[in-house]
Amino acid sequence: MPDGPLSVQDPRDTSAMMNSQETYRSSQNQSKSTSATTNHYTANEASSAAGTPSKDAVAQDQVQVNGTGGIANETTISLKNLPIEEVIVKVRQIVAELEKLEEYHRGEGMRYQKMLGDFYWDYADHRTEIANALSDCGYAALTVKMLKTMNTMGIFKNDDIWFPTYYTYNTAWNYSDASESLAKNLAEADAVRLLTLNLGHKPYLSNIQSKNVYYVLKASLSTLHNIARCSDVKHFFKENKTAEVIMPFISMKDEFLKAISMLTLAYIVEEEENTKLIDETNTISSIVSWTENAVDGGSKRRFKGFTPWELTQGLDKLAVNDTNKIQVVEAGALPVFLRMLQHDDPKEQSSTAHCIWTLSFDKTVRQKIIEHEGLVAALENLSKNENSEVRKNCLGALWMIKGENDPATTTKAEYTFQQRKEYIPLMMQKKYRPDGWLGAILGAKLFFDFSGKYPFEKSMQGLLKELRGRGQLSHMTDSTDEVDGLIAAENHMLIEGNPHKTTVAAHMALSMSRDDVTQWLLNRHLDICVPHMAQLDGKLLWQLKLMKDEAPQFFFHLLDTKLKLSFVDILRFTAAIDELH
């Protein structure tokens, strides 16, 4: 089984699938209606008197695929045990054949979608590669087109329409879990609107007891969840008011629908709405309980189809809100987190460490983490892990946990002060009053207040002006001045500046490989940038520097809106890229 919630089962097991006549009978007492807004038909829409295939037409493990080109005369048996390179070729050929179809309910649409779905199960170790290939060849837009076309016809009208609809939902659901690229493609192809309309369609909700209707709702929610986990997609959900549509599912008795709804909302609601979600639904304690059940789930480590790392990602999103941090701990998350860190799955280790990192911004929670036996030791052990994501998240959590009391941090600060290094203090936490060594070195310095007390723009202008002067503060008075700003994090940070620091020569930068760029980022404590810049070599990094110099507004807009870097990380990366000369 792959990571992430899947469909009810392997689609080759058709026992869970009712035909359209059964769907009709299950809802025959519901009055017939259609929605002009959504082009959905009710589950009891009249079934076609002719043309309904037998159930044998669905059991196609031996079926011959009709069509032309590279997949003519293929059978599902002949598509097993192939080298992955050949599978990718077949995937592209199947999508090409799907694109040629003018109608999707004559058999070929179902067969092609089923073939793609079978690859998901037959080549489990290569799911991401297959999903990325689907993304590259335009599968997402084609799938949304197919679903919209069959919606217009009425997906429960007869089996000729229902079966290809089922396999299309199934394939999109599973592969969007395996590839962020494909999930984003679905969002860009209008899938969020389509799936949101499914979830708000009253005739569907009235007939949720029908197995097929339930499946459509379940697939719609799960695919939306896969999309919601991606970056830069929140606006699709906001435009379609998806959160409002999903909210009622949290109150349903069905545990899966309740769980997937909570997790999806954790990704798409705004921070201020986050509190309402928690207060009204007991979401945090439920997710912590499900995570523990998943950890106890034997070798599969799943609960209701969810993995521990997936549930922890949902907690992490909720914990961004300050009021939720202590609730996560009070719900009993720390013992579960320790077990996940001690497990050998990098995804579990990485997601858990990142969640602990988020929680550590709260002083009370930070102390509870320190006091929980074995937790800090587990983070320290994994901070040397060969997996870069695990290592990065553990180091981030440890920095927050040990932070001000860490001898290494203290030594660096003292060195900065004694050697008269140039630095620009940033106030990142509301009402924070530095003491000890930090208070000493800040006593007579200008600082920029980004704690949320003041508007962002004025402070940003002042800080950029200061950065352009490379920290030259001689024109300032000895008094401490405050400059307006917006909170960007909950910890304080020193940004050091030295106009004479060592730089990387242009010819050296241009010769850097992707691995060299990754190491360059890690050496400058820019681990957060590594996932976003994994494809950059020295030449592309140099182009990014040129963009900063020639189009600074676009450069900072890119870091902020596209890469989603925090304000502190933007400053760090800007300082680092200035080293390139």
TrEMBL record:
Protein origin, superkingdom: Eukaryota
Biased composition (Polar residues): 16-51
Bilayer-spanning residue ranges: none
Ranges for region Disordered: 1-57
InterPro entries on file: ARM-like, ARM-type_fold, Armadillo
Protein name per UniProt: Uncharacterized protein
